[in-house]
Structures are given as structure tokens and as C-alpha cells.
Amino acid sequence: MFKVLVIAYYFPPMGLSGVQRTLKFVKYMKKYNWEPTVLTTGSTGYFAHDMSLMKECENAGIRVVRTEGLDPYSMLSKRRTMKLPPEWLRKFLSRVSKTFFIPDNKIFWSKKAYTVAKELLEKEKFDIIFVTIPPFSAFSMASRLSKEFDISLFVDYRDLWTGNQFEFNLTPIHKYIHKKMEYKALKIADKVIAVNRKVKEKLLNTFPFLTFEDVIILPHGYDEEDFLDVKPVPKENTKLRLTHAGIFYEYITPKYLLKAFKELSKERPDIAQNIELVFLGHLRKENVNLINKLGLQQYVKNLGYLDHRETIRRIVSSDVLWLMVGKKNSADAHTPGKLFEYFGTRKPVLACLPEGAAKMAAQEYGAAFITEPDNIEQIKQALLRIHTLYRAGQLPKPNEDFIQKHRRELFTEQLTKSFQFYLRAL
């Protein structure tokens, strides 16, 4: 069996969608003759912890090596699950962090992880190093290991580095340093994995030395096993249940949906009374304040953060699912992982999206009502259309072929095949 060292800061028991891509990859690797060892952080504070994902990792028999670091989350480890700060404070702290820590505030963890990885590589033979980013400091660290030990390096871009939608550079010097660091790491990497075609295009345009064959596209997906033997949550009424799973931050906001629903409640109170807005995940104080300000409390159910298994149960029990991606720099290259988990439910999706990869995926899915993310009138009209079809029992069915092509296990098979092909070509 071949061996791969997987470097992933975000990994269970951390929760939220950022950890799932890596978890699902390593879960199925052994089936394709690859034994993963995951190098990740130790007990760390975070905005969510999910023991159901941790149990999934343990049940798959994944070897996990943990190392502490002096990053902000590790320093807050005693607090375990932290409350989400107000958005203005989170944004301020993020910008301060990005100003003083380059490429990110995980550099101290990456330095510690480098030492642990070096010990592993000196004791054992690994065929591939696989690093998932962000954090981008992990890529710099992994490229150093690859060069020192002459081991092939695959890097998985869950998000862009240069041109990231959350990018903040106080000065041109900051931007220059980031690009130079990414250039240096990419020069060492043997293969690059992108979550969508837009990410691939931007990488090829930003770094012309990359060839078309250097970058492999492996989208987000859903795990079929997550949907086996799921017991739906019984409905207490005949209302249309519209559900959002996840957190809101930066330009990802419930503001426009809530304002559209407010307009709907004024124009067609009879329809509004037959719709239930369900939020799974942490709602910030400002989100709750907006709900109260608009007087929508009677229509909203805020269930708070639920573990992954319970979240699946809730979205499967919904009539329509909702998500949005706001308009911002490189939003066209952003595909939320939860969109593909939504696809696994086969439920219709109200997708408030800008032009780009996420919108194209929603169009291919078929059972999607697509609007501009900030167009209140469009969203209101979509809600009316959804309600009409729901009452008539005519909500659209998705493209099953498209869904089958986005199974996590299939993408793991493709990833391990790319490992094999590269090693054979050496």
C-alpha cells in the first residue's frame, strides 16, 4: 500500500464545512490502496466542534498526528468552542492579523508542524505529500519538506491564495510578498488541485509557468454514506420549509433574503404565513437583530449549530434549501462546499449567486431557482414561484447524472489515480 502524508490544519474535531473535503478524501483513500497519515492541529479553540465528524474519522481508522502551535485558535484551546464575534470585530481582527502575519496567522503552527513532519519523514517512507490550503503557510511549509526529502507534492486549493475573496493587503508590499511566496511554493509543487474551473483559470493566468496539465479539477462533492438511514424530522404543519445551513460572514449574509421575505409578508401575508425560514448554524447578533427589526420572528426558526449528522437530517427534511454568495473580488471562483451537500439531498435549491462557478454548478444541478445575490425583487419573485410549485406538488427534480458525478468517493478515486499516474511517470 502506498503512503501519503496529508497536511491539513482544518480537520475534525473542528466543525464547519472547511474540514469535510479533507476528511472525505482520507476516509476513502485506503479503498484505493493509499494509506493516509494526517498531520493536523491539536486541541484548539474554534467556532464549532463536531464529534460526529471525529467519530467518522475514527471509524475509518485514519492515523492522525496532532501538534500544537501558537496560532490564535490554539492559544484559545481552553475555551474550546468560541462564540462568533460581531462581524465588524471579526473583520477588524482579520485585517490586523493579515497585516502582521504573512501569509496568515497559522505560521507558528506551520513551523511546529514542519518539525513533526520532518520526524515522520525521517522515520517512514511516504510516496506523496498532500497539503490542503488555506492556511497558506501550510503550503510554504509543505513545499520546503518536498524539496528537502525529494517527495512529490500535491496541493489542494480549496480557495485561491492570490486573489482570494477575503484577501486584504494593507500595502503593495504585502501583496508582493504573498505572490512571491505562492510563486515559490508552486514552483516546487508537482501537481495542483483546484475546486473548480475558475480557480484553475485564475491560477494559470496568474502563474504562466503552470501548464494546463499541471492543474487538476476536483470539485466539492457529497458523501453518499451521509444520506443512508437518515430519519427525517417530522413536519408539524404543511408549511414550506426553507432551510439554510452554515454561518454568515463577510459578504455572505441573510440580509437580502430577509428583506425580500419582509416585502412578501406585506404584499402576500397569506403566502408568508405558509413559509418557515429555518437557520442551522450560528446566527450572529446582528443577524438576529435584523430579524427582529423586520418583525419576522414568527416566520423564523433558529436552531443554532448542529453536528454534521443532525444537519444532514434537517436538510433532508426540508422542502427547499437556500444559500447565497455575495458579489466581491473573486466571488466567481468561490463554490461553497455546502452547495454540493445540498445536491446530495436532491432537494430544490434557492441559489442567490453571482456569475461564476457556483452559479454554473447550480444550473447543471437543474432543480435550482437562481437569482442575483442582492436583488430583493428577484428573490421575492423566486419565493412566490417556489411556493406556487410547492402547493401544486410540482417542485423541480434535479439532474441525477450530475449528482452521481459529484460523489466524494469518486473524487477520492480520481485523486488517488492522479497520485499513481504521477508516480509512474517519474
CATH architecture of the largest domain: 3-Layer(aba) Sandwich
The helix/strand series, from N terminus to C terminus, equals EHEHEHHHEHEHEHEEHHEHEHEHEHEHHH
Q: What is the rounded distance between the termini?
A: 18 Å
The geometry reads as: globular
Strand content: 15-25%
Major sheet description: 7 strands, parallel
Main sheet strand line-up: 3-2-1-4-5-6-7
Q: Helix count?
A: 17
> Which structural class do you get from the secondary structure elements?
alpha/beta
How much helix is in the residues?
40-55%
Write up this protein:
The chain has 426 residues and is an alpha/beta fold. The chain is 44% helix and 16% strand. A seven-stranded parallel β-sheet has the order 3-2-1-4-5-6-7, with helices on both faces. The model has no long low-confidence stretch (mean pLDDT 92).
